[in-house]
Input
Amino acid sequence: MSERVDGDTLSAQLLRRAAPGRADFEDLVIVPIFAVIAALVLGGLIMLATGVSVDAIGRSFVALFVGSMGSAGAISETLTAAAPLTLAGLGIALGFRAGLFNIGAEGQVIVGGMAAVIFGFSFAGLPIFIHLPLALLAGALAGALWASIAGWLRAATGAHEVITTIMLNLIAMRLVDYLLRSPFIQKEGRADPISKSVLPSAELPRLFDWVDPALRIHGGIILVVLAVIFVWWLLFRTTIGFEFRASGLNPDAARYAGMRSGLIIVLVMALAGALAGLAGANQILGVLGRASPNFSGGVGFDAIAVALLGRSHPFGVLLAGLLFGALQAGGRQMQVSAGVSLDLISIIQALIIIFIAAPILMRAVFSFAFQKPAKR
Amino acid sequence: MDIELRGITKRFGDLVANSSVNLSIRTGQVLGLLGENGAGKSTLMNVLTGFYKPDDGEILIDGKAVQFHGPGDAIRAGIGMVHQHFMLVPVFTVAENVVLGVEPTGALDHLDLHKAREQVRAINDEYGLEVDPDALIEELPVGIQQRVEIIKVLFRSAEVLIFDEPTAVLTPQEVTEFFKIVTMLKNAGKALVFITHKLHEIREVADRISVLRAGKIVGEGLPRKTSDQKLAEMMVGRPVTFQVDKGKFAPGDLRLEVKGLTALRDDDTVAVDDVSFSVRGGEIVGIAGVQGNGQTELEEALTGLRRVVSGTVKFDGRDVTNSSARELHRMGIAHVPEDRQRSGMISDFTIAENMALNTYYDAPYSRGILMDWKTANETSARNAAAFDVRTRSIFTPAGKLSGGNQQKMIVAREMSRDTKFLIASQPTRGLDVGSIEYIHKRVVAARDQGDGVIIISSELDEVLTLSDRILVMFKGRLVAEFGAGARRANKNDIGLAMAGAAA
Output
């Protein structure tokens, strides 16, 4: 390298892509894989410790597998559960990339779902190709606006987004309880808080009900694929994504480079909120058909784990979303056929995240899979 | 106490950081250890202070072989290190910092601060260090903080003191004071190791010099018998020119005109106080000053990163007061910021991405909102080649480059455009001789092409070598001007002005 090579040859040499280091590969792929394995093993040990028989533990793991991947119905359930997790996870990953810790996906999911249900039961008589996009758009916009509040507060006053989004979550949850009892939204003749039903023209169509009416997989999964591609394109192929990533990694350098951090923060939060809002709309228009208290089922919180597990990369988030979807679908089967509580799945999910966050532990336990560190 | 390092070899994987290094440290002598960044100085000292175990070789103390199993062993053996970055608790007093970890305690583990103060005073008196044991660290100037580090080491009964780049953070006057302390310690029978890459300092203070390059001792010499030229050649491995070849001074049109500029720090105190000056094309104006006298804020105010509260800035006759960083950048003002890691680059971005960092919104890097990575990468590769950024690929994360190559990358980004003006702050801080030489050449080339240049530096030698005119900043004001018509530049006078002596 020390001799002066002709400038053109040198610059051509510099354009050669360095092979991704073994260490990067280990961090991105091997650590998550072993985190999942370790969590499943530990989950088994927990069952053992709580008096579940070895036989039942065996049956639960079989059920976990069969219930998530063992049949067309199982795969349909996995994908249906993965859709909202991936959408909201993408939003959170976008925030992580830009250096924002958006805890507010849950609130954004709820607000998005409410907007979708309101637009979904109103406007009778619209054709599906107008009504459905309208309802989806309403969900995305509501989520975007909701999240922008936190973004604006951060940009204008410096209020930390972790605190504001947590508070906005609480507000969103109570707001839904309140709205569900208002005469405009509450289903006629019901005393409990439940909304009117979404009109068929606003429903996300089932994709394979012509094969088997029990297959719940719906058009939302197409939305998910489009969203993954969109987020990847935005982050890595546009100037806006370049600004997001620069501000996330080094806000000071981004400012020195003339980027406007306030604008970026609001924009990132709005986009993250739109994706979470879409996740809510997806649940309402594709699965539930109406809103009830806790209709989100904590999707917004699980999505944080999905974004972490996916290393904030759109494709990683998709894979993580599928894994968590599979755990949920399989977990239900596990409850039915082995009598093990669904709570165990939450425990396993939490363990996965803990192991991901502790790569050194993974390296120590599964040392055979990793390159030996240089000896001191 | 005499220490002998014999055949020390230290490997990290395939990398040989130290290869059969012999070094002798003698009572009452200063050993100068000279070497570029990455030459293996730190590894060697980490072996000596017990942080690393050598793969081969031995350490002899007064003729007896010793084994260090950790830093504690080295401290007990009487070896102490004064780090380049101080390890002090800012909100503690001097005495509290000195005794930290080895606190004198009374009954029931009661912290005996009174005794601590007495012990600090005793060391003070013995070596004439003059440090108030009750002063808070955060209120002390850097030069005094360094003395606290020295007291800390002496308090742990060190007989051998290792100084890692001790003058990097000091003003010229503080350096003089520091050398007095070094002499005092030497005369008191301590053995000293002085690590640096500044040649004149090592010649001034060392009794013997060892030069380390690529992990090996490549030469030894006596300071009075070895020339700067010879030392630099040993250190870099090739002949080095110290003189920067500047074209004839031919100032052109007025480029930058600053009138009554005032700017505030983040805590709303005045940082830049009614400053006026101008820079012509083809002229390098050096702004000298001790860190923290408003240079950083002046730099930020001139580059659109800090609000100007009063006064005006004109560039090429246009009022650009409080224009945004991007507007100024687009007018052709290149900016090499003071702290390259913090604000000049993004470590996790590749070199290619860093090269696009402030021009990404425009051709050739993008079209509309779409990044054009193909053209961007080609441009980056050409610029990296043209500016001697040494890397195997432009897709390497910038954080993996050496400091010199990081700075060359930033200079490449800023100066590969069609520029009219350059504002560079501490452009060569912490860099090796080769990179300094290269960056100076580039700065002078910009000036010879007719660009106006401002160099902000606390490195007096740098300001003197490069500048056509020197302004000295003290407490937010420009207090003196040297060169080009005004008083001739002179190191001593500039040093005094930097320290605030009435000019």
